[in-house]
Amino acid sequence: MPLSKKDVHRYPEEENNLSISHGDYFSAVRSFLTQNRFEVLTSTLTQHFNQDIRTDEIKEIRIVLEKHGEFYHPARIEVVVYGKVASFVVNVAVSDVGNEYILKDFKLMQRLNTEFPQSFIPKVYGKGEVPVKDGDIVLRMFLGEWFEGFNEFHMTRNNKDEEPKLIVWYPDDDNVFLSEDQAKELYSQVAMILTYYYNIETFEQISLWHHAAGDFVVKLDDEKMETRLVTIRKYISMFDGNDAEEQAPEASVVLNALLVFFLNLSIRTRLDRLDGIGDMVWSDNIAIDGTLNGFFKVW
Questions:
Q1: Residue 84 sits in the same domain as residue 213
Q2: Tell me, what DSSP letter sits at residue 248?
Q3: Predicted local distance difference test score (pLDDT) of residue 5
Q4: How far is it, in rounded angstroms, from Cα 74 to Cα 141?
Q5: What integer is the mean pLDDT of 61-65?
Q6: 157 and 125 within one domain
Q7: Contact between residue 121 and residue 112 where contact means Cβ atoms under 8 Å apart
Q8: CA neighbours closer than 13 Å in the CB half-sphere of residue 208
Q9: How far is CA 138 from the centre of its chain?
């Protein structure tokens, strides 16, 4: 299995000595789902269907490897219960960088789903680790909500001379270029989500996100668009050692911090890699218009 979605020929520093086969991967995911008499899965299904689901009521489980990401290798899990199919995701960390963040990711999504009334991130249900290669390698993973119909998007260009455009990747390869209005709305929704999770009192914010890693996904339905964030690798204050919990910050500090947050946001939303793995690219001014709209929509 490739351990990153980056092209290792172009980025040889990403290559390491790990060797994981697809068989190792699927066996590990199966072990995670079936351990302790399917405990993590039956608990998740009980929440999903809002009724008690027993192990013997699970008729089929399908494990589909969806992609090789920058940090995780996500599998779509389709579970057949009472003739209905419930879909979830198992995010699997194989590389060193994935293992560094996966437990933090799980805990942060638990926390933000508890602290914020609306949710633009997945629910998470259970975590675990499974040894492979006779215990020489441990794969860490967690079970979470699957965003049905949502897909990754990236900047791309048909030829060297044209400006890069946003394209939505579909599983059947019938990819869709976004219009200017759609691109503006997409950037607006990305900025809205990141601003929504910004804590104005503690200055905490979602960081370490990147379009190149496929952290945001989008769903196009006729004229409607929905955007979600699939990972929270880091959620920290922009200031070290602030005492916001003990004393309310002064208004000038709040406004200055908000300005710094916005400036950083207006840069980060414009950055991507061509087709997710190529050279770093910078979007046009539509991204700024969309970012402004999303930022002020929250305030």
A1: no
A2: P
A3: 60
A4: 9
A5: 96
A6: no
A7: yes
A8: 17
A9: 22
